[in-house]
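Sanity check

After download, print the first record. It should look like this:
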Amino acid sequence: VFENLVPTQDIYSDLERLKFLTVTMMTENKKPMVTSHDKMTSTQNVKFSLTPGANLDIINSNMKDYITSPSEWRELLEEFKSWDTSQDTELALMKFVSLYHSRTIFSYLPLNWSNRFLTTTASCPIKPGLFKGSYGGHGVELVQLQIHMFGSTMLGATGVKITGDPNVPFNEVTFRILGEDCLNIPEDLQGTVRGVRTAMMEKETAPFRENQVQSFRVPMDMSERVPIRWTTCKGRWAAEAQIASHMFQDPQLIEANFILFSEDEFAVMFLDLNSVSLFHRVKNLY
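Expected structure tokens:
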């Protein structure tokens, strides 16, 4: 049984499981029978190609053309919106149309569970893993947090999108921590984005210390994509975040902050966008 694991509107809830394919080995001829449960494709003419450690390709043919039936097209769109987390109607429609016109082949890549990025020491301040994060109008997306170690020292970290959006797609970097030392931003400068930028220009940093507590507040002129209840944090790092136009055109890296609240929760401030995203660890993956 193949299932799509998709995030829900609530970053604290479990992933939703959507069954889309069943493969049964026939006893008579020992050949696999593939059954599709995906209404988007609406076909039983399905083949799949699985290369161990590489791509899984689902190939559909003789699919139903919903465009010729406006009522069925609307019904299919409403079903898509029932599990898609986009908060913007136009963005949801954009994702739906893109998915519909690429439904001939669905290609899946294995998660990068390499020990190079997912093995840390007990003293490492940040633990790697899979997180659900809020991306404004794009809704909730999955991000894999990878840690870069040199011996027992954390040199930085990278967030890679597992699910993407029309601007920054899956398998692309969404943010990156720059350096091992924490920022030390006075609370009075945290009140505005300009104050945060001023503190970053002064480059006042300090090594991370276990059990340290730093003051934290969201700048008054910054939008919270999910309400943040924290008033302290365990550490704060200079970072960069990737943004792009539609279809990943003109990608660029902007100034950001990575704020660690707990082992299971952190935030990323997109300073150029005056917005902050909250991320929560996915625990029940299987």
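If your output differs, re-run the checksum step. Summary of this record's structure: The chain has a mean pLDDT of 89.
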